[in-house]
Amino acid sequence: xxxxxxxxxxxxxxxxxKASAVALAVGVHQAWGAGSGVEVGVCPxxxxxxxxxAALRQAGSRVILGAQDVWTDPNGAFTGExxxxxxxxxxxxxxxxGHSERRHVIGESDELVGKKVSAVLNAGLRAILCCGETLSExxxxxxxxxxERQVRAGLAGVKADQLDRLVIAYEPVWAIGTxxxxxxxDAQAAHVRIRAVVASLFGDAAAGxxxxxxxxxxxxxxxxxxxxxxxxxxxxxxxxxxxxETFLPIVQAAVGSx
Length: 258
Ligand code: PEP
Prior knowledge:
By secondary structure, the chain is α/β, with parallel strands linked by helices. Helix content is 45%, strand content 15%.
């Protein structure tokens, strides 16, 4: 099996105030310490990126600073949106693209998500492309078809030499924030199919090197079983990322998985 360093990223969504965001980031940094064998990232709300980034830099932290979204154009009349240069100015290194809530609550299309992935990679940052089926799609037996459609559209503008800055997150919509996670076997099966889609686009070597995280009610008590699956390369974590004491055991599970 190719060796892929697992990556565990916390998506803090629309939670925290400035002080608690900084405290959480510092808490993650201090608890993780000089840990190795895993990459760790946090994605605060836009308005907290500056303060969280400053705190992480001051601590000399290796915790990756991520944003939850971005707009595709470099500047202009896009009221309420945030550009890549604004993010890089704050030290952001990674951007989530096509999170389930962006797709299903805000209404982002596959095509827009693909444009965001390309814009992020073209700007030299790292992207996490999220994909995943809804409950009705799963019940209709369309899990693999939906993932394939979202991954193909998400990678439509990506160049082969940008793939090392891309991670895919498989996040079944029905598992996000519900307390109901995919079984390790279900996650593994979906990841294998997603990897096959990457292989069909970029070849086996690129697919073998691609990290595919699982997201959806990953918690300290189920993380190890999920990340132990050979094609599950870490986690994208919502609820359990909001406290260092529930996030760190997931990070440790990822370290122990390889
Ligand atoms: C997420 O928001 O990406 C997520 C996986 O949330 P939760 O862990 O709360 O299901």
